[in-house]
Design a protein that fits this description.
Chain A is 68% helix and 0% strand. Chain A has 168 residues and is mostly helical. The relative contact order of chain A is 0.14. Chain B has 273 residues and is of the alpha+beta class. Chain B is built from 6 helices and 13 strands. The longest helix of chain B has 29 residues, at 33-61. Classes of the chains: A mainly alpha (168), B alpha+beta (273).
Chain lengths: 168, 273
């Protein structure tokens, strides 16, 4: 149990180091801002109680807001993502259900399953985040394009990180 | 109480989500200047929109009062119209300038009788001696010559129309100043004849004919009409057909022009004749 907490703490710190030091500096013409820190919420254990999941999502977002100086913006998006996660897990559940005590990762399940699961959560998170950022519906489609491009990059980097974790 | 706890337990996922999302959105709207101003603006716009709808709706309830007020206003406007139209004749008053030493007096009058189809046409106006009209005053319709007063009673005057075989007037071509004599040939109420313009004078169709002011009756520069046709007629003169500026068939209001210095001019001229 302690071991697990330490492992997630390490994942949390590593993800934020990557996000703040690397991905926050990726800016292709303002359209691509990948946010891979959301991977932390993806990887939390399947049977984690929903209140803890929501609170962890809240603090994940709060940490990100702390680094990007945008109070509430990432928090809103991550809380929404955390709220949706149990429904997405139920929606994408494998034929024989989740193994007890497993993490929802590519290590434990298939690449295809992880791709669908991660894509849905990432798109939900990015939709909320980017529309909260512009906070208006003019330029609706421009924002949508940003969301699609950024989601593609986020999902790619998350898959890449999963492969690195798997290879380790 | 137990029900409440059950409810909270059942929906704890949703409730915690709503609480945390509420905190996050509160942070978003208070912590960021841009989002804060957008939220404030949005609420203001919403309030303004609701207010507009409410006032739109309530204005219907005031329609009765509004229509009553308009009916009252209509009544008062109609009364004003009646009063003003009843005073129509009093609107035409003579203008007397007491500051400048003026030469001509103008007073408006309405035409009450008029003919155009005789050889010697006269028209009657609704002002007479009591309104300062006297014989030999000029009558103009707008800026165009209409006739000359030949007789007046207390409240009416008779004017010899330009359409009268006895009417003679000294006029000139505005473009070059050559003057001649205007008369009517008794045929067409829309045209008169200008004679005594020498044949070496050049002018064209459409040239303006105006009064000279030699007669001491008409002021200088009143319009007669325009040249509509001309032909050489025996001797050295043109016979010019003038399209009259005044439409005598619908003469309605005229200005009566009096020359205040006529007596002086005539008296002086008499001494040297």
């Amino acid at each position: 149990m302690i071991n697990r907490i330490l492992r997630f703490g390490l994942i949390f710190i590593l993800l934020f180091l990557l996000q703040v030091l690397l991905f926050n500096n990726i800016k292709f013409s303002g359209y691509v801002n990948p946010f891979v820190y959301i991977m932390f919420i993806l990887l939390l254990p399947v049977e984690m109680p929903s209140w803890l999941l929501l609170i962890l999502s809240f603090f994940t977002g709060l940490t990100m807001d702390f680094f990007s100086g945008t109070p509430g913006m990432h928090t809103s998006a991550t809380v929404l993502a955390g709220f949706m996660r149990p429904y997405v897990l139920r929606f994408t559940s494998p034929r024989d259900g989740y193994e007890p005590g497993s993490d929802p990762s590519m290590l434990a399940y298939s690449f295809r399953w992880f791709l669908i699961y991660a894509s849905i959560i990432v798109v939900i998170h990015h939709l909320a985040l980017f529309y909260l950022e512009v906070f208006r519906f003019t330029d609706f489609f421009k924002t949508l394009l940003r969301i699609i491009l950024s989601s593609l990059f986020s999902i790619s980097f998350i898959i890449l990180l999963e492969y690195i974790r798997k290879g380790k | 109480m137990r029900n409440l706890l059950n409810f909270l337990a059942k929906y704890n996922h949703l409730i915690i989500f709503l609480v945390l999302e509420g905190i996050a959105l509160y942070l978003l709207s208070t912590g960021n200047n841009y989002h804060n101003s957008r939220v404030v603006k949005g609420f203001r716009g919403l309030a303004a929109g609701i207010e507009k709808r409410v006032s739109n709706a309530t204005s219907y309830f005031h329609l009765r009062e509004i229509s009553q007020a308009q009916a009252r206003e209509n009544v008062s406007l109609r009364t004003t119209i009646e009063r003003l139209s009843g005073k129509e004749n009093q609107l035409f008053f003579s203008v007397t300038d007491t500051i400048r030493h003026q030469q001509y007096t103008y007073s408006s009058a309405g035409v009450v009788n008029n003919t155009v189809n005789r050889q010697k046409n006269f028209f009657t106006i609704n002002k007479g001696k009591l309104q300062g009209i006297s014989v030999d005053m000029a009558v103009a319709s707008g800026d165009c010559v209409a006739g000359v007063i030949v007789g007046s009673s207390n409240n009416f005057s008779i004017a010899m129309s330009l359409l009268n075989l006895d009417f003679r007037l000294s006029v000139r071509l505005k473009s070059n100043g050559y003057f001649g004599s205007l008369s009517w040939d008794g045929s067409d109420p829309r045209h008169a004849i200008l004679s005594e313009i020498p044949q070496h004078v050049t002018f064209g169709i459409g040239d303006t004919i105006e009064t000279t002011g030699f007669s001491a009756v008409f002021p200088e520069g009143l319009v007669i009409g325009t040249v509509s046709d001309f032909e050489k007629s025996g001797g050295d003169f043109y016979r010019i057909t003038v399209a009259l500026g005044t439409d005598f068939k619908r003469l309605r209001f005229v200005n009566v022009i009096g020359n205040l210095r006529k007596e002086e001019q005539l008296e002086l001229e008499k001494q040297f004749q």
